[in-house]
Design brief:
It is a single chain. With about 350 residues, the protein is an alpha/beta fold. The protein contains 13 helices and eleven strands. Strands 3-2-1-4-5-6 form a six-stranded parallel beta sheet, sandwiched between helices. A five-stranded parallel beta sheet has the order 8-7-9-10-11, sandwiched between helices. The longest helix is centred in the first third of the chain and has 20 residues. The two termini are about 40 Å apart. One of its GO terms (molecular function) is ADP-heptose-lipopolysaccharide heptosyltransferase activity. Pfam families: Glyco_transf_9.
Amino acid sequence: MKPRKKKKRQFRQAFARFLQRIVTKKSGMETFSGPLKSIAILAQEKLGDCVLLTPLIRNLRKRYPDLEIHIIAFSQASAAFFKNDPAVTAIHLAKKNPLQYMKEVRSARFDLLFNTKDHPSTHFLLQSTIIPARFKVGHANPFHEGLYDRLIDLPHHTHMALKNCALLTLLGIETDTEACRPSLPAMPVSDEVRQLLPKLKSTRPVGINISAGEPNRYWTEQKWQTLLDRFPGERFVVLSGPGDTAEKQRIEANCPNVIATPPTRNLYEASRIVSTLKLLVTPDTSMVHVASGARIQIVGLYREAPQDISRFGPYAVPYELVVSTTGEVSGIAPEAVEAAMQKLLQA
């Protein structure tokens, strides 16, 4: 572990131990009872985490039509994502305007608070402590002990969609695999994308997503082009984030079997395109969860990180994973990705 990451981890753990010493100890074994009229959900920061939280919100709204669902957001990206979800009552951005935020959450009295992180986080633990709630729920972890009325105890490598939905079980709501499938709230779709969708539905291309959240999750532009050259009989579309538009356009120009598509402006637009595909090839990003929500099979490009695969991998869809042995996704050979694609295309 790098020294900076190690120091951050040590600080988080020390802060958790401090809270465990000063707050009134909770058993972690209590049963929720009484009315449920309002809930505060501490949402994780990344878009992929937001997508994996949608099944919980969807099922809560279905079971409790009048429930006030408040999202405590810790990033602009997560706040913007949930702004489009009609099931969400209010969004409170913890880090933008602290005084306004404190006024909003301290004036409320929630029936239930849920910390979605299953490891110690300074901000999440602090908000768990200061937000007034009659009943507080977290995931079992030595650094969460004594801080929550109920700790949900699931194996570490349980998929996060299921870990989020475990709150439903605590509330007596039955769930199954399909109930916990991710989804996306509707967002604006450009006329260009809307007009393109019928063509894609009739063509059923293969999609490649060239963007990733971290440098060591990127595959190289040359390897993407090499892969596409190996499938001259297939049609492809290229998906990317805003920062990789130039690379997307170069691949579209250089590969004759690629259907040029407009850059997508949000994750929902991308999901509309993904829903037309026969297969998506993508690094370990939120697009894995978008494809899982659309029931599209996946070839995932991963580093050697078991928890990234078990906790954040494809959910309830056919998939093949290609894992780098170098610690960098860029170390994966095109031949390995081709073989994984052939397995799914032939099936």
